[in-house]
From TrEMBL:
Keywords: ATP-binding, Nucleotide-binding, Transport. GO terms for molecular function: ATP binding; ATP hydrolysis activity. It comes from Flavobacterium sangjuense. It comes from the Bacteria. The keyword Ligase does not apply. This is Putative ribonucleotide transport ATP-binding protein mkl. Residues 8-245 form the ABC transporter domain. The keyword Coiled coil does not apply.
Length: 245
């Protein structure tokens, strides 16, 4: 990867499902340690974009470079090598309900590194839970956790593999205003502590304002507008401004 080149560079990305063209030439660049937010109405392809980014959906056309490597040309083994450097924060936290918090995190670590020692597992679980302020929940079951706590444990599970990139899919959805703000503030502190690069899919404007160095707005399958929160809020485009009302 060339020095100062973007960590993520998506060029002319197209994706359709049958006759439904969801992405129609999306271009996105994200630089190292940058937090970029993607906004858009429901069904505009925000989540499809990040699924293409990690190869969960196959692009119909276009180039997707991650760490300087075009992932659309990789076989499954090489793609998994790239995925190992990326954390994916799912909308619902995606915890296994039959496992305790400790077991959920242990499972993630062992899946990531089959040779990891018990001591290293314990150290990394403690560190990840401390980072999200929930060490006391280590032996709780997901059913015993509030929605906000589940999100935090989901973040701990994402962090535990020490990713260079974190992809957040609607990280504050389903949360009350105060808890949503706490999660947004936690995302910012994680970026500062771990120097991660983040791509955040959200429709929560408070989250976008707090977490995004730059905001992209998807419309009709392309990036319709781009800028800081303040710049977009003052946009002369009434459709762009409608997000800020």
């Amino acid at each position: 990867m060339e020095r100062n080149s973007p960590v993520i560079a998506i060029t002319n990305l197209h994706k359709a499902f049958g006759d439904n063209e969801v992405l129609n030439g999306v271009n996105i660049t994200v630089n190292k340690s940058e937090d970029v937010v993607i906004l858009g109405r429901s069904g505009t392809g925000k989540s499809v974009t990040i699924k293409c980014l990690v190869g969960l959906e196959k692009a119909d056309q276009g180039e997707i470079k991650v760490f300087g490597i075009d992932i659309t040309k990789l076989n499954n083994n090489d793609l998994n090598t790239i995925r190992a450097r990326i954390g994916f924060m799912f909308q619902n936290g995606a915890l296994y309900d039959s496992m305790s918090v400790r077991q959920n995190l242990t499972f993630t670590l062992k899946h990531h590194d089959k040779t990891i020692s018990k001591e290293a597992i314990e150290t990394q679980i403690t560190e990840a839970l401390q980072s999200v302020g929930l060490l006391e929940a280590i032996d709780k079951m997901p059913s015993e956790l509030s929605g906000g706590m589940r999100k935090r444990i989901g973040m701990a599970r994402t962090l535990i593999i020490k990713p260079e990139i974190i992809l957040y899919d609607e990280p504050t959805s389903g949360l009350d205003t105060i808890t949503a703000r706490e999660i947004s503030e936690l995302m910012v502190s994680i970026q500062k502590e771990y120097k991660t690069t983040s791509l955040v899919i959200t429709h929560d404007m408070a989250c976008a304002k707090l977490t995004g160095n730059r905001i992209l707005i998807l419309k009709d399958g392309v990036i319709h507008a781009e800028g800081t929160y303040t710049e977009l809020e003052k946009s002369k485009d009434s459709w762009v401004r409608s997000f800020f009302i």
